[in-house]
Amino acid sequence: MEMLYWISLVVGGVFVLLSVFGFGDHEADVDADVDLDWEAELDVDAAIGAGPGFVDLLSLRTVFLFTAFFGLCGVLLPLAGVNEVARLLISLTLGGGIGLGGNYVIKRVGYEHVSSEVTASDLRGCAARVVIPFGTTDTGKIALVAKGQRMQLAARAFEEEGGEYAAGDEVLVVRMDGTVAEVVSAT
């Protein structure tokens, strides 16, 4: 049994260390290739529960964390004078807990993508106030708040509505044409 603890410690420990230092982190590459709406991910988690599921039991990360900490406990517990049965039970429990708990923490914290970058789709539908007047053929400036950031953008009247906008008028952003917001009257 002693050899099993040492082999588990060495094999699991090597793979845990490799993952800590970033070797073989393919899940982050996959996450970068998939463009998902973060709010949709939250809705899915809320609908099915955000805890570790059956699939998490089979992940390699969970297996390697379990193996490393199972082996570590098995090697260190005899130093505390723990008998063989208690040693096995504690090693299994702690290895399983750290395997599942560590996997849960890494998935929830390590791969959480939060961005404050404002995109064109974030601006669509935002209310704004005209700062520099503009009309159908010229460009002015609007001020708005998007994703908690105050910003000013070049703006022009939406081509299908037209119109003249004076300083202080309320407008809605219909779409972005490059860096220029196309707007309509908010009233």
Total count of strands: 5
What quaternary form is this? Answer: single chain
* Order of strands across the main sheet: 1-2-3-5-4
Given as residue ranges, the uncertain stretches (5+ residues, pLDDT < 50) are 25-52
Structural class label: alpha+beta
- What is the beta-strand fraction? 15-25%
Rg over CA atoms, rounded to whole Å, is 28 Å
Q: Please report the number of helical segments.
A: 7
TL;DR of this structure?
The protein is 48% helix and 19% strand. The protein is an alpha+beta fold and 187 residues long.
Structure notes:
The structure is a single chain. The chain has 187 residues and is of the alpha+beta class. Helix content is 48%, strand content 19%. The chain has a five-stranded mixed barrel with strand order 1-2-3-5-4. A hairpin with a 7-residue loop joins β1 and β2 (140-146). α1 packs across α5 (60-76) and α5 runs antiparallel to α6. The protein is rod-shaped. The model is unreliable at 25-52 (pLDDT under 50).
List keywords for this structure.
alpha+beta, 5-stranded mixed β-barrel, 7 helices, 5 strands, 48% helix
Question: Can you lay out the helices and strands and say which pair or pack?
Answer:
Elements: H1 2-20, H2 26-33, H3 38-48, H4 54-57, H5 60-76, H6 84-110, H7 120-123, E1 127-132, E2 140-146, E3 149-157, E4 170-177, E5 180-185
Parallel strand pairs: 3-5
Antiparallel strand pairs: 1-2, 1-4, 2-3, 4-5
Helix pairs in contact: 1-5, 5-6
